[in-house]
Structures are given as structure tokens and as C-alpha cells.
Amino acid sequence: MAFWDKHAETLPRDKLEELQVKRLKDTVARCRKSIFYRNRLKDVDESQFSKPEDVSRLPFTTKNNLRMNYDFGLVTVPRDEIVRMHSSSGTTGKATVIFHSRTDIETWADLVARCIVMTGAGKADVFQNIISYGMFTGGLGLHYGAEKVGMLTIPSGVGNTKRQIQLMQDFNTTVFHATPSYILYVSEVMVQEGFDPREFDLRIGFVGAEPHSEQTRQRIEDIYDIDAFNSYGMSELNGPGVAFECEEKNGMHLWEDQYLLEVVDPDNGEVLAPGEEGELVVTTLGREAMPLLRYRTGDLARIVDDGEKCSCGRTHVRISRIKGRCDDMLIVRGVNLYPSQIEDVLMSFPEVATTYQIILEREGSLDSLIVRVELYPKMFDGDLRKLRELESDIVKSIQDEIVVRPRIEFQEPGSLPRSEGKAVRVVDMRGEM
Ligand code: ADP
Ligand code: ZN
Q: For labelling alongside 132, which of 139, 141, 144, 219 has CA 20 to 30 A away?
């Protein structure tokens, strides 16, 4: 079992918590230097903090706070100590900007290096970073971590899919980083071009930046004959390197020496007990240029609370797969559901190809849920009975999962829109009718 920073990664819980309290106090003190936090912390006395849970005495920070204090409102260092700016993708509105000092960039690369080594990847690997570079943090985030580990790093970015495949072939890529939707698309192009995705030298994939189900991970693993590891992060908390799966693939370790985690009820902000599903709230513990207190990530997950220490030896908390953003929740005929629940059902059918779309329409006063599903070409061989059976099996499985009965529309392979970045799965037309 390989470690990048064994000492930090396996710190006994009591030592880890001690470190968290110390860093939390330092972070609060540092925050007072920003225009945004100065007033908000007037009534806080961090010298009284004695345990990590004391973080709940602090006010929350929201994406909207970041937007309203655009551009430098949360910065705590002089301008000439800032060496990099990043931005979120703007999936849910105006993008937010984040600033980093030199130390911040180094710490970030170090956390990413921990993640990479934790999956069994290392110096001897050839790493193709098939994700957007630029302001989006996925590209540079993994890039710096991979170079730190010493991998041969190919900054191929997204797009130009045939070239991606050529690079994999010519340079014997062994590890890639991509969004799950794009890497599934790459496999379709491989097949069109006459390749077998399993015949490349690939052995490990880092997949993240968007919600995906366990079934989708298994799909990716089967198609490429690799191990795929879930990677979670967001620009506000640096980017990738916040939480990542270890070789056990039983939850993502979140680096608690740098991030203090709480899970709260998204409706009222109450802290939930370990194991309950809620919104992840994170306080940065080492950031210099732009520390954040109790940042409301908007992402839903739970702490893996199986009472066991992870057998990889790491002591840092594990979080479950991200179910989606709080605002990804769809209300259909009064029922709350998440697109990831539908994805999970679809991907368990081997006949279903890799792309789907959820359409919501209003028919009279009733919502209708239409799931467009691409099937593998072999399903379009004219056997209508087989298709009808599949349709009713899918309808039943989805209804069992989410209660609402969907209408299924089968599509020819390749007919639904493909994305290079984060996939757009839901088209809600209910407001337009
Ligand atoms: P934006 O919030 O505008 O999309 P980011 O590019 O910073 O900006 O994306 C971070 C968000 O992407 C996270 O808050 C989360 O919703 C999603 N995300 C990142 N990694 C994962 C993952 N492994 N699983 C599910 N969702 C993820
Ligand atoms: Zn582990």
C-alpha cells in the first residue's frame, strides 16, 4: 500500500482533531483580515474553541456570499501575495472566483498527489489529463499533483477525441482523468474507429466533476478494463483533491487536516449525525489567500459510518458518492427525486448504452417524466418483442426506485447530445408550456 504522506494520512484521530482545532483557530483569526468576514466574526471568540465541533458556532458562507463579494472581498493577503486565480464552472449561476497564494498552490498539489498515490498510481505511469484546462480547476489541479508525483503528464485537455485516442496509443497512457460522461463518449469513438477500449494500456481512471452512479463506474471499469476512482472537489475548496477514493472504493477519504467537514440539513442548517444524508459544509484549515468558513457546498452526501477504520490505513473520514446538488432535486408529481437515481437504474441494464436524457413536460395539469435512452446498436435488429420487454423492465425498475412511472423513448446510438465538460442530463420544459 503506497502513501504520498503517510504521516499526515494516517494521523491518529486524537492528533488529527487536535490539529484541526489549532488550524481552525488560526483560520478564524486570518479571516478577520478580509472585508467580508471582519464584521461577521465580531461576536466570535475562537480562543474558546476546544473541539472540531466548535466550528458550528461560526456563520455559514454561501456561494451567494462569494458572488456578492466578487472580486477580492474574501481575500486575506496583500494583492502581491496572490499568484493564481481560478473560477467555478458556473453550473448554477454566475461563476465565483478564487485566489491562491504560492503556499496554497503547493498545498493543493500535495493533496492531489496524496489522492493519486492512494489509488495505486505512481511515478511510472503515463498520465493523460483529459479534462478542461484554464479557469476550471480540474485541469491544472490534477496536472500539478501528477507532476509532483513524477508521472509523465500529458495535458491533453478535452475535445478532439480522435487525437486523445491517438495519444493513448502512441504514448501508452496508463492513467487518465476525465468526467465520466466524456470518457464514456471516448469509448464510443474508439469502437467506431475500430479499436477495442480494453486493448489500450490503461489501468486506472480518475473520474469526477459531475455526479455519476456506482453502476456508471462499473460500466467505465468494464468498458476499459481498468479501476476507476471517484474524485470530488470544487473550485471554492481548491478543486480536485478534496476527497478521493482509495483502493477499497468504499467512500472517498476527505483530507481532514486541510478540510473540516460537517453534514447539515440543507433546509435549516442543523448539523446531522454521522451517517445521515445532508449537505456537505466545509471549512478550509490551511488556506492563506482565501480561507472559507463553513462553506455550503450545495452537494448532498453522507459520512460512511460503518464503524470500521478503512483497511487502507488512512484515518481520514470517508464520504459517500455525491447524490447531486441540493438544487438538482426534481419534484415530479409531488415526488422528490434525483437524476442520479434514474441513472443508477439505467446503467444496470447491459442493453442500455452510455447516454441518457431526462425530459420533464406538463401534459394538462400533470407532469410527465420521459427518459430518453440510447441502446447499443445490436438492440435495433428488428426484434420488437425484445424491445418491448426491455421497455417494460426499465419502466418497472425506475418506478420501483422513484415511485413515478416514466415513459421510455429508445434512441439510436449517438443521437443524444454529448458534452465535453459536465453533462446536462435534465431538460425541464414544464415552465414553457
Ligand atoms: P460549478 O459549481 O460551477 O460546477 P466547479 O467546477 O467548481 O463549479 O464544480 C464543483 C461541483 O461539481 C461540485 O460542487 C459538485 O456539485 C460537482 N462535483 C465535483 N466532483 C464530483 C463528483 N465526484 N461527484 C459528483 N459531483 C461532483
Ligand atoms: Zn481507505
A: 219
Query: CA–CA separation, 199 vs 190, rounded Å?
Result: 11
338 lines ligand 1 (CB under 6 A): no
C-alpha–C-alpha distance, residues 326 and 303, integer Å: 16
pLDDT for res 356: 95
Q: Which CATH number fits domain 329-432: 3.50.50.60, 3.30.300.30, 3.40.50.300, 3.30.230.10?
A: 3.30.300.30
Rounded CA separation 164/185 (Å): 12
For residue 316, give the C-alpha cell: 481520514
pLDDT on residue 87: 92
Taking 50 as the pLDDT cut, the residues of the chain under it are none
Q: Is ligand 1 within 6 A of the CB of residue 173?
A: no
CA 227 to chain centre: 17
Range 1-324: architecture per CATH: 3-Layer(aba) Sandwich (3.40)
Residue 323, classed as helix, strand or coil, is coil
Domain spans in the chain, listed from the N-terminal domain onward: 1-324, 329-432
